[in-house]
Amino acid sequence: MPKKGILERLRDGVVVGDGGFVFALEKRGYVKAGPWTPEATVENPDGVRQLHREFLNAGADVMQAFTFYASDDKLENRGNKAQSQYTGEKINKAACDIARQVANEGDALILGGISQTPTYLSGDGKAAVQEIFRKQVKVFVDNKVDFLLCEYFEHIEEMEWAISVCKESGLPVASTMCIGPEGDLHNISTAECGVRMAKAGADIVGINCHFDPPTVLEGIREMKKGLDAAGLKPFLMSQPLAFMTPDCNKQGFIDLPEFPFALESRICTRWDIQKYAREAYEIGVRYIGGCCGFEPYHIRAISEELEKERGKSCNASEKHDKWGEGLRLHTKPWVRARARKDYWENLKPGSGRPLCPSMSEPDAWGVTAGDDILKQKKDVTTDTEINQLITNRNRK
Amino acid sequence: MPKKGILERLRDGVVVGDGGFVFALEKRGYVKAGPWTPEATVENPDGVRQLHREFLNAGADVMQAFTFYASDDKLENRGNKAQSQYTGEKINKAACDIARQVANEGDALILGGISQTPTYLSGDGKAAVQEIFRKQVKVFVDNKVDFLLCEYFEHIEEMEWAISVCKESGLPVASTMCIGPEGDLHNISTAECGVRMAKAGADIVGINCHFDPPTVLEGIREMKKGLDAAGLKPFLMSQPLAFMTPDCNKQGFIDLPEFPFALESRICTRWDIQKYAREAYEIGVRYIGGCCGFEPYHIRAISEELEKERGKSCNASEKHDKWGEGLRLHTKPWVRARARKDYWENLKPGSGRPLCPSMSEPDAWGVTAGDDILKQKKDVTTDTEINQLITNRNRK
Amino acid sequence: MPKKGILERLRDGVVVGDGGFVFALEKRGYVKAGPWTPEATVENPDGVRQLHREFLNAGADVMQAFTFYASDDKLENRGNKAQSQYTGEKINKAACDIARQVANEGDALILGGISQTPTYLSGDGKAAVQEIFRKQVKVFVDNKVDFLLCEYFEHIEEMEWAISVCKESGLPVASTMCIGPEGDLHNISTAECGVRMAKAGADIVGINCHFDPPTVLEGIREMKKGLDAAGLKPFLMSQPLAFMTPDCNKQGFIDLPEFPFALESRICTRWDIQKYAREAYEIGVRYIGGCCGFEPYHIRAISEELEKERGKSCNASEKHDKWGEGLRLHTKPWVRARARKDYWENLKPGSGRPLCPSMSEPDAWGVTAGDDILKQKKDVTTDTEINQLITNRNRK
Amino acid sequence: MPKKGILERLRDGVVVGDGGFVFALEKRGYVKAGPWTPEATVENPDGVRQLHREFLNAGADVMQAFTFYASDDKLENRGNKAQSQYTGEKINKAACDIARQVANEGDALILGGISQTPTYLSGDGKAAVQEIFRKQVKVFVDNKVDFLLCEYFEHIEEMEWAISVCKESGLPVASTMCIGPEGDLHNISTAECGVRMAKAGADIVGINCHFDPPTVLEGIREMKKGLDAAGLKPFLMSQPLAFMTPDCNKQGFIDLPEFPFALESRICTRWDIQKYAREAYEIGVRYIGGCCGFEPYHIRAISEELEKERGKSCNASEKHDKWGEGLRLHTKPWVRARARKDYWENLKPGSGRPLCPSMSEPDAWGVTAGDDILKQKKDVTTDTEINQLITNRNRK
């Protein structure tokens, strides 16, 4: 019996997305921060499969094939050897196989995703960029993914090119930009970005990555205003960071000084995520998942918050009584006293870091696609180039 | 060819321990916070095996069988059904099998551990407590673990009883208390605790859990003073939390209001852990690992900091250029500018939580073994009991 | 020889305002927080005079008669006895006398100010409100102040009524609203407020009180945009709080939970104020002073930052070498090492309060002029009313 | 009718001290940070007199003549011209005159104080140091102060020399060291310092300056233990900072990076001070005042907290209804809702500084009396010396 498709699921209820692969697998030892490419699908399929299983167990209705940044130009950017060792095609195919295997252990769908390209950032034009996308989408179609996702785009122009390529496949298309409420990096408003994604043919539109849950939902509210005004009704989708980022400028968490190796103290609790899931649902978002920083327990938090709306609980809830109720079994009486919702809902967690501030000053170089300094290249960055960058940085 | 034993390894160099299973597997969906018992070895052996592999990959020289709190009395405490469903023996045996399998994929040893018991906390005396330990140790010996560990004891008296049982096996014995520099919960000084563990026959002594790396090392320094004064020379071992806890009282992180579901903002960065590894080594600690909160990337940080001393690198370092050097491959120039040691070493990370304090006021009920309120029981805690506890708590 | 007038001074250079009387004199014991009325001019003229002298000494070019909130309706609001004991007329006259005496010890001008009224807040209409203003202005004119100031208005409508009354005097009129960049409490934009003040006849327009220096200057930038677009060229004036208030909503610091008795940790340093003075000057503000929280050393900081632009130094600088240079005379060598600008400019001061957050959640009742709950009355608030208010507050 | 003496007052009840002159008058423009010497008694007697009056009004039972650091060697240290312009004798005499005048406007006593000397720090020996003290004490005796105070000593040895000189006068002698619970700078324990002050003949012993109220009271508890063990019963006295300093090392707030120009966010609220007054009283302290940072409203907070114990209220309480009750007269209802004790007692004030940490790393050069770098001299510090100091500092 065929599984119910993504658009029907969204029509009938709420879809729980999965979490972030690159950050989780970097911590588990299988992905390299810097290039952030997914050759682990070939090198360590067991590790990738296990993370898929944990998200499935946590209630995810979809398994996104782990193909983040697996475009050929990214796999050979700045000294990355993944393209020459494996090829993008092989990495993407392995990702589809693993995702499908785990999806079939439950009732989940699989999807393939494409993202912004170094080619666009370097200013090489529409044809070159779409050629990159087309190669990736072909692998997804050949491997029979259930739908496609264009995610992590900073410029609506490149996003439109991506949606257009995906539409050639005839599959449902979802699209999420990595922007906040202040618009894309060429100053197109968030509302307009939403409208343009829908007009380009996306069935599902929204925001992923770059900002914390409250900021992403603020952006989605902007998009919804634009869509409502234009009389458009695509499904809404949100996949924020699981890091708190109130101090970000419009370029998002990459500009925070803590990115990517000292973000720990910004990690969201499960309670932060339950609050996010509720708020997203109330806005009307029906595809609710997470991006970088989302671990299996964060996805479980979405499933638990929306248990009634979904009419089912997830497997991982067997090991998690709601709102800390499991603490009733704790040895110490003062910990048992924390087995209740109002305790966790109202707690303001300390950081244990009295020498640290609560917010940071993000880098703000103010450059984007088209700027010379953003031209990408194949060679690894040299010491001289690094020193030049540090000098630039201190001048800002 | 037989593997080199733990004591020889310590004599010849430094041993990297593994990380924390209960917290990591709770987040992955396989362990329940509250009871914290390890029935996952039977229920989800794949999930447990994967975590072992990640620690091995990160450089761990030992695989601790996942038997935390797997004493029969704990497995049936306050409504826990693990004992009736599986029995402690079965859980412990499965743990040994998994640990051995992964250990043999590399050159690692395996160990079995026993911990403080509800029986002691309830005041049931030496014979009853040692009976509990003996059952666990028998499984470890039958399954041929390489050495034994008595860990997570708050009272030196119970620790001595545990070491004594372990010594019956003829295996090397390690022992770590979950105390800080202020001594055990019956006010025996940390220095004296160190001396008494050594005199009880432990080959390796130290501290695990309950406090952050700086506090644990402060405690180890106290132990070393006592041991030096007594002319004793056991190996030293440290396995702290990967959470920052400067605000703890002597009972440790369990009393922090954030325990266990809102500790996120206290999580140590990899750089915090490199600092810990260096400092531990300089004090003379030769068994350097981690406890709750230690994920694979934290163990990798120990391996990388001590790479020269160990004369080898770990597999996971293939995906981690030292001190952020991998960022040379990043797309954005201001992130490439962070590819250097002094950047990460000096960064004071923001929490992104301006409405939260930096420190918390821990619960401080001031009760310990022997107090009536600490008597354990089989039934799950009732609503009435919880309300009574909340009332007590607010009164403090 | 007559002193140079305020408009000529502004035309030829920069005018340094004075600081905040109610907060400073509350701490010195002469003003009561709650009513905040200035009967000290009658009760403790020496205390008022001394504060004027300190501001003069710190470089203030103007002495604002201490008549804040000295309208008859405020002096008898909610149990205040100042009106029945002294009358507004007597208080205002005494204020003028003291200000004039000290002004003549230097080259300073004096001004009289009027502020928002309970009558307006209670919705009693234009005629009633202007009647209140007219009584105050008469005292100022009779006592020969050099110019008039309409300050601390939250609604541009009431401000226009005030300016109109002041214009009847023929004296130069300055006008500052206590709003930020988000507009007045009836949602008139800040830019429009600026334009309407100028069109109503104010020679000098700007913002005072309610927000920290950065927020006030952001508001002034908005006003300037509006004025430029309308082709209007009044002088600009800023008198912000000397408290940091990034967490305020549009109603300002009164809604912060710390108002008014726990604002200490928000107090600006002298270096914060030098930064403010420089930024204000660069925007084009020519009347640069302070409001609540500004102590004499804050005014000195303005004078010192603009010493070159003013072509003179202030008396109090004899006791203050620039940028900490006086520390060269300190006993301890590590304190002498702080005798330099870059040290103080870059310091991020700790609060010494690790159990406190960095930001607060302001009260946000969302009511303003016209709402029933804002009706003022003569009787002191009863216990029942207070309990009702607490209940309301907790509900928000 | 002669006033009741200090010892009788202490025997019969509690004595409220006054606040800090150097910090308050620095902000008012009359004292220079760096040398911190009191030539304002000659230059601006009105300013000094006004501050005395405010403390009297706030309930202070004693007026300490403003003679801080007015030893001849300090008045000519490192370029200070006060000695050559005025002489110590003239400054001290003027201070006594002003204090006496204001004391007689109420029922207050006056006292003269002496402090640590550059001569001691430079290692010049007992005779030289006592010669300095004797000159100061002579002025106090000639001007008929009611009692003497040896305050702000970091070394018990110098303190004993000072007490010994004071005892020659026949007047009651109080003595307070500027140390915390960790002992003096030559590592004499705080308990022993207490005992040695009492044995040297001080009638009143305690601690002033350098630390926040909680730390000073912790030190007093140590002193009391020592005194109790030795069977000694002097009166106890505390005059802490009105700055929060949990991050200080044993040298106190001078080592904090914020000293002295960026301490604002550490200033205690009136509620912090009420808590301090209560706690001091309960420990048995009977001379309760403040040092640097204590403004008149802080002294009023002591008087109000101990109103029952003193059997009287202070004049300044006419302008301050207890625990925020004056807010009943406020215009805005949500501010009236704050007119109650439990609101202010439980408030955790935000700093409004999200880019700042809560604690700082103090300088820790680890040098004290006898170290070459602490030799004092008459010449002002040169640029070369400052640069050398900065280099030293960065090396630490």
Q: Could you write a compact summary of the structure shown?
A:
The first copy, chain A, has helices at 6-12, 21-28, 40-43, 45-57, 72-75, 82-86, 88-103, 118-121, 126-142, 156-167, 190-199, 213-230, 270-283, 296-305, 307-310, 333-336, 341-346, 383-395, and strands at residues 15-16, 62-64, 109-114, 147-153, 173-177, 204-208, 235-239, 287-288. Chain A is of the alpha/beta class. In chain A, helix 11 (190-199) links the parallel strand 5 (173-177) and strand 6 (204-208).
Written account of the structure:
Four copies of one chain form a homotetramer. Chain A has 396 residues and is α/β, with parallel strands linked by helices. Chain A has one domain (6-395): Homocysteine-binding-like domain (TIM Barrel, Alpha-Beta Barrel), CATH 3.20.20.330. In chain A, 43% of the residues lie in helices and 9% in strands. Chain A contains 18 helices and eight strands. Chain A has helices at residues 6-12, 21-28, 40-43, 45-57, 72-75, 82-86, 88-103, 118-121, 126-142, 156-167, 190-199, 213-230, 270-283, 296-305, 307-310, 333-336, 341-346, 383-395, and strands at 15-16, 62-64, 109-114, 147-153, 173-177, 204-208, 235-239, 287-288. Chain A has an eight-stranded parallel sheet. The longest helix of chain A is centred in the middle third of the chain and has 18 residues, at 213-230. Chain A is globular, with a radius of gyration of 21 Å. The model of chain A has no long low-confidence stretch (mean pLDDT 94). Chains in contact: A-B, A-C, A-D, B-C, B-D, C-D. Chains C and D meet through helix 2, helix 4, helix 14, helix 16 and helix 18 of C and helix 2, helix 4, helix 14, helix 16 and helix 18 of D.
